[in-house]
Design a protein that fits this description.
It contains 10 helices and 13 strands. It is an alpha/beta fold. The strands form 2 sheets. The chain has a 9-stranded mixed β-sheet, sandwiched between helices. Strands 3-2-6-7 form a 4-stranded mixed β-sheet.
């Protein structure tokens, strides 16, 4: 049976609300807030759990907000692996202007982690990954974290035979040098890494392949937003179109993609079919409110449609097909 562990070094409580119009100065009477457990790895874990794969979410927690976050993770059906820290867990806010349909997102920096607290996070991961197939490390590093924290983490779990899926950016990404199995940057994040915007497909492919030839990773999955995704390995690459969707909230869709891809890999899918499952999970997440994952039934439906599109020139029934996601 597959098992996945996620690590969120800078988790948050995500509050989401609505208001008729966002205006300066005046009080804005908002709808009752929705509370979701947030942060990259936690969002990934929620999609993994929705797809009925065993998962544990490791994350630091501090103060009353940390205790609430732990409860929210548990309520979401994900076994939590909290690591106590001194400073309070952060809270983020998103406000949807119902007149314009625009969403405003206010993101705070998070608690400063000491060196001993970072070490305790590594110890917690080392314990949690026993018997796991994949570790997903997702999100920004908190204030005070060593820039090469993810490299230290990758070396640690790599020695235990666990594959690492990494979704991060900025200095945390630039400090990774070796050993990751799959890296999933957005096209903007990869452009930041390269030092210039990646304006066309040739540049995007070339930069993604540089990460592989440098030994950083075996696979790059480049998220292109509405333009789809690019899967790159040492020997091949493949472009995937996005699936048209009505967007209720874009928060967490990229994390849902990582969750779906990792579930596919853990179940033995070919990387391209794992990406199709990730696209299905991301598309389904767009239809939910807050940071909630897509429903398993919706993900399965979208995944089957993507498999049919893959075989549109042939008899779909004759395709070698991985199993559809197990439904609850």
């Amino acid at each position: 049976m597959s098992r996945i562990v996620t690590l969120t070094m800078n988790p948050a409580i995500d509050l989401a609300t609505r208001v008729a119009e966002v205006v300066p100065t005046d009080k804005m009477r908002c709808a009752a807030p929705r509370y979701d457990p947030g942060g990259g790895g936690i969002n990934v874990a929620r999609t993994v759990a929705e797809l009925d794969v065993e998962v544990t979410a490791v994350f630091p927690t501090g103060g009353p907000p940390g205790r609430l976050l732990e409860q929210l993770v548990r309520d979401a059906g994900v076994p939590p692996g909290p690591v106590p820290v001194a400073e309070f867990t952060r809270e983020n806010l998103s406000v949807t202007d119902t007149t314009s349909g625009e969403q405003y997102r206010f993101v705070f920096p998070g608690p400063r982690l000491t060196d001993p607290e970072q070490h305790r996070c590594l110890v917690a991961v080392e314990r949690a990954v026993s018997g796991a197939d994949y570790l997903v490390a997702s999100g920004t590093l908190p204030p005070g974290a060593s820039p090469d924290f993810y490299q230290i983490l990758t070396d640690l779990v790599g020695d235990l035979g666990v594959r690492v899926v990494l979704d991060t950016s900025g200095i945390a990404l630039r400090s990774v040098r070796r050993g990751v199995y799959l890296i999933k940057p957005s096209v903007r994040e990869l452009g930041d890494y390269a030092g210039h915007p990646l304006v066309d497909r040739a540049e995007q492919l070339a930069q993604a392949r540089r990460l592989i030839t440098a030994g950083m990773t075996e696979i790059v999955l480049l998220s292109l937003g509405a333009a789809g995704a690019l899967l790159v390995t040492r020997a091949s690459h493949e472009w995937f179109a996005a699936v048209p969707a009505r967007v209720r909230s874009g928060i967490g869709a990229g994390d849902a993609m990582v969750g779906g891809v990792t579930v596919g890999l853990a179940r033995g899918y070919e990387p391209a079919d794992a990406v199709r499952l990730g696209i299905a999970a991301a598309t389904a997440a767009l239809a939910t409110t807050g940071t909630g994952p897509g429903r398993a039934e919706h993900i399965a439906q979208l995944y089957r449609e993507l498999l049919r599109d893959k075989g549109s020139a042939d008899d779909v029934d004759d395709l070698p097909r991985p199993a559809a996601p197990r439904l609850r």
